[in-house]
Amino acid sequence: DTGVSQNPRHKITKRGQNVTFRCDPISEHNRLYWYRQTLGQGPEFLTYFQNEAQLEKSRLLSDRFSAERPKGSFSTLEIQRTEQGDSAMYLCASSLDLTGSSPLHFGNGTRLTVT
Amino acid sequence: AQTVTQSQPEMSVQEAETVTLSCTYDTSESDYYLFWYKQPPSRQMILVIRQEAYKQQNATENRFSVNFQKAAKSFSLKISDSQLGDAAMYFCAFAFGNEKLTFGTGTRLTIIP
Fold it and tell me: What is the chain B residue with the closest CA to A38?
């Protein structure tokens, strides 16, 4: 169990640029989640996958955000035409079971700064 | 929609003392799960303790225990014998069925040596 891995750890980009983050979950976990966390706040749900299927996407999520999980393994989160308000920590988490009781295992996150 | 409220943005406790962090939630469901997660500075979030709503017995994990009051929709975390390593942001979280986890805004816990 090598844990959930996220890359890059930090990303600085200029407003209007596109960015892509990667998450490698724990290998046997079938669920993968993306959360966004701003300073002093709790993680805010963005989207989640069960295997390769994207089951839910937050209504708060702009159309500029897209996520994929090809073959049910790693996942990517892309933000197009970044805005300063996108600056945040993007957290990925994975879990094994299909029930809400299964604890989430988090990665270290990708900190995005949009200048 | 489920909501989770943590009314204490910051708390502090003397090392070796006991501290209780508060959490309330709102749901119309009867069967759900509650969690406390810990996020140390610049480190990843980890699970501290979990409670199933159908269980009347409060969960305990070593120095960490919860006071689950289902009727009051309250789920507080008690940390006994506080240690310097307990300093972190603590998030209360709720999940129903197989849906995603909903987090509160967190409580920053400081341990005073």
Answer: B105
